[in-house]
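Milestone M4 deliverable, item 7.
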Amino acid sequence: MKFFALAALAAAATLSSCATEQARPLPTAPQPVTIEGAWSDPNGLLSTFQAGNFNTRTTDTNQLLASGTYVKGQGPNLYEISLTSHVQNKQSRVNCALISPQQLNCTADSGAQFTLTRKPGVM
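Output delivered:
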């Protein structure tokens, strides 16, 4: 009889805890990730994407190496960059894929491939 009473008491406690549990907040949708911001490459160059404009500078002298524009591409994480190299005085296009919030893989129209890494806190 004691066992039955303990079991009934445990069941009642379990049911009452379910009735008093507060509703959990719904998860929020993650913020969309864009290429806006500053990115670096393994050579120490700093590329900045802001409001459709693009530029690449050296980190030591802040010399402007390339500038241009960028637009969202056909895919969900694809971007197209039209740029002018101020070093070679040449125009080119680069296609980039944002594969994570911190990594941008790019292919120039020449076939050259490179990776940019997001610089935290730099805009």
